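pinging the channel bc i need a second pair of eyes. not urgent but kinda urgent?? the chain im working w is below, pasted from the shared doc
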Amino acid sequence: MTPIITALVPVFGVIFLGWVLRRSNLLPETSWGPISRLAYLGLSPALLFSSVAFADLSEIELGGFMAAAMLGFVAMAALTLALKPVLRVPDPTFTSLFQATSRWNGLLILAIAIALFGAEGEVLVALVMVASIPLVNMECVAVLSVWGTGAAPQWRSILYRILTNPLILGSAAGGVVNLANIPVPTMLADTIALTGQAALPLILLAVGAGLNFTAMRARPRLLGLSVFVKLMIGPLVFYGIGRAFGIEGIPLTVLLLTGASPGAASAYVLAQQLGGDAPYSAGDITASALFCFITIPFWLWLLG
């Protein structure tokens, strides 16, 4: 347990620092949005490019690992849809519940995987991210198109935004460089790597700054259900599928972390745009981030 705590405390410590900084008024309240966008869309693509481009993929059994990860996301979506008939909640609220249990904060898990497993954890999470972003977004948009109250989604525009997501482009470019053995000049590689190194601290600070405890008052019982499904059932789903595929060691623990991830801030944005329950999404993002401080160490201790 001590190595787990040693690896996780710095990650959670930076998140806590972000919460403190936002409430200290050291920076204007309006600055955190641009900081978050810079970290996610400006710096993270460089981090993912470096992770994938220079990784030794020959020693990783990617086929079963990637299949298990994608099946995990599909299973969580199916589980949540199966709950709809027994949940007496408005349809827009159900769409936000679906997002709460289906989305994951890949960059937070990337930081944890790097702290625990170094380069191997980094590349495994990066690969799951590039494959899961289109899948999860299409799932969530489909559910919002059926039960949301917003205008019908423009699928061509949505598909374009997904495929041009900077995180996908950075990972895909890294994959092309890796698989095609394209040489990258040392100075350029070092510049990209240095840019990427700035991403994770800013992301963790932004996660902490985004914690909104007031938002947790929205539908507290349903919030408890979504957090329980995400943080307690999700890890078991991903871990069980991984074991069924014969995956062991670090890849299996990365699957466990993927399932144990808190929700993503993008759920709130999509709920606003397509007629979900945005206040409930805001509460879930905070609640899942808060309780994952307990559940992630627990799952790593129990099954990692």
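so The longest helix spans residues 119-147. and The CA atoms of residues 262 and 289 lie 5 Å apart. — does that match what u expected or am i reading it wrong
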